[in-house]
Amino acid sequence: MQQLLNGIFIGSIYALFAIGFTLVFGILDRLNLAHPAVFAASAFVGIELVERGGLSLWAALPVVFVFGAVLGLVIERLAFRPLKGRADAHFAGLISSIALAGMLIALLQWRYGPDTRRFPAGSFPETRFEVAGAQVTLAQVVILAVSLALMVGLTYMVTRTRLGRGMRAVAENPTAARVLGVDVDRITAVTFAISSALGAVAGVLFAINVNTAQLGMGSAIELKGLAVIIVGGMGSLPGALIGGLVLGLAEVFAVQYIGSSWRDVIAFGLLFLILLVRPQGLLGARKVREV
Amino acid sequence: MLAEYATTLTFIALGAIFAYSFYAVLIAGQLSLGQAGFAAMAAFSAATLAPSGDDVGDVPALLTAVVIGMAVGALGAVVLGLPTMHLRGVFLAIATLGFAEAVRVVLLNLEWTGGAQGLAVPRILTVGMAWTALAVVAYWFWRMGRSRYGRALEAIREDELAARSMGIDVGRHRLAAFVTSGAVAGLYGVLFAYYVRLIAPNDFDFTAAVDGLVTAVVGGSTMFLGPVLGSGFQTMVPEIQRAVGVEAGWIRPFLAGLLLLVVILFLPGGLTSLVPRRTRVPSSGDGDGGGDGATATRLAARRHPAAGETVVSLTGLAKEYGGVHAVRGVDLEVRGGEVVGLIGPNGAGKTTLVNMISGLVPPSSGSATVLGTTIGRTPVHQVAAAGVSRTFQHSKLFNRLSALENVLVGAHLVSRPTFLRRLLWLPSARRDEQAALEHAARCLRRVGLGDLAGNRASSLSYGDQRRLEIARALAAEPSLLILDEPAAGMNHVEAGRLSELIRSLARDGLTILFIEHNVGMVLETCTRVVVLDFGEVIASGTPAEIAANPVVIEAYLGTADDEPSGRSVADGTLADPTGGSGAVAAPGAVTNVDPSAAGTLDLPDTTPRNAP
User: Fold this and answer.
1) What's the number of domains chain B is made of?
2) In terms of domains, do B66 and B43 share one?
3) Which of B108, B161, B261 lies nearest to residue A99, judging by beta carbons?
4) Labelling B452: which of B10, B51, B197, B500 has CA 20 to 30 A away?
5) pLDDT tens-digit readout, B260-317
6) Is residue B246 assigned to a domain?
7) Can you tell me the ipTM of this complex?
């Protein structure tokens, strides 16, 4: 039971991170490899907000959300917009976002140094719950609540609002959307902002969960994020949620029953199998090729 | 002097070799990140299996290790490639990445690899050896560039479907590129191991793979020099920063990232775009008439079916898309030397029908035999090999290749493989390439594009692109040529020339099937016209019969009573709904393509000019 809960907590963070990833891919067909750097940066910023700004853990979350959104706009502006209309935009976008991620991490190193950072002592509430014989901290409950709330909010936005309709139109056919009066550039920018804001919150929640932030934490989760969006189906939001939970649970149980050193083989073996059997992912739709 | 920079130079060579393993697949349009896994497998197995330098001497030991490593890498690529080659783009990247990570974790957990501590390997590699190896790899890709094989890979990168229709076995070519990549990655793994003294599985992690990809893309993934330039750039940037005294810490990675961003944003095509690229011009074309006749016979000539022999035979052919019957119950026989025009309103199923005939779309029911091949289960490239060549309704050119190169790809089926002979500089390879070039130039001249041979396909005007597609299809020396709306976007002078070209091809013994909305041109060009509506053949006969057929006129122009709800401007079958009722002889009843290319329906005077 304890393992199940742990798996759900870590899985919900994976899911939140992966949803940001898959949002950009699903709508704009671009893989933004600066996303993990946003994840890392926001963890550091979150810690600083609590440490120096004296904010409570929870007040820091909305601030980080905004910080991530701004970073997203910067990423879109610097690494993706200049590539618009280029034949190699796919590869070039990968590389430019990698470059930007490198710069972002370098800036983090400048500001915070190469060492691991932690939240100041006493920033976590001590409340604990007992759920079916398992120990759960308040922090963990909040992680789950925030993740779920954000995912529900995002789903509502994409399916119900005008902005979401614009996003889906762009995903379907950018040219047609433009002709019909959708401001494609604005939708693109907003998509990046939302995606990065989610990634940022995921970063802080991750830092809260393990109480550490490291420069390399982004690349550690990057692979998992990719695995999650493949397992769930590229561009599928509910798929990313399910994929995140599946990965979180698989990891926790792999550590429990097989040993921690083999943990990642499970994750990637699973990923590989799913790609072979169902390349479109669990909930993805197979794109029909036009003749 | 050299000794001082030996380490840097060695790492440039190693980085370049690794980047070549990415280049090998990028050139075919595949994004793979599994190379780090191949390199790791190769490094550990070679370091374990190869004899020690003390027993057999350093160089033989290294050579043995290289052979083992490359074999392991290639084998790994076959094993990984067979199940994953159907994946595209990011999916392939992530599947291969998953594989590489799994390899790394397994190696970390095995006894004989030393786990995270790693494995000690003697340092044998010198700067000279590293650059020799690099030279060999670069030579391989240089000679590949202008071989038939290299062109086929580029064609697959630009447009996979068009490449298939040109007779290229895409699956085999992609797997070959992948295996090459695995072997080169294996080479890198071994050389790296014999240089750094201690290898650990974590030397071949995700970051390493990303570095390799970045190097290849920064250098430029369309020209063989790219990886070398990319590696020079990636290795030198930190070195130069150190030399000019940029402080370690955050500034170095920041500047490296910034430079990378600048290169990728402002140099599309990577660093190689700074190297002037020699544009290949057809070898003086019409100038040397002497060699022309001699070389023309060198390309494999196809025997066309004799006039009257069955070329296409369809019985009850049908295609259904989720309940929509695009084509139903079509029986059609096309005989050698015929020029068959396929007309019908938009959505009548014309393109679906030719897609089935060319093997792109399997029929839902019914049977079809084209040039002796049974359509349905036969892969597209084999249908093409049987002698079917086609153009597409929406141009599917290889956009980043020159017009001439597009046509050279078209000649894939009739030219001979040249890559291996080019590696050895055999004169026969040169002659074969020359023959293919001249053949391609002839095809270009035939459609009137002789002057534009060196231009990029994407830079051509719309009409020229249509013509280039025809030239490319012609280059395959097809027995059956299928043209899907070849005159779209042409004015009536150009359409007239196209009509003349089609008739001259028929005189050469080709059988031609073409879809066209320019009815005037169809009636003027064809020996037989087939009219399709709602997926069914509603009429078939000589142009004169068709032009007088009331059913056809109704399908095209509608009748008075179904005018309000019938097909009209809305679906583009009729440009002039008001003059529609029974207007057989309505002067200027225009078709929907292009007002200037308008054919009128009252053209029955153009009787067939070259009956079979």
Assistant:
1) 3
2) yes
3) B261
4) B500
5) 888 888 887 777 777 766 655 554 444 343 344 444 445 666 777 887 788 888 888 8
6) yes
7) 0.85
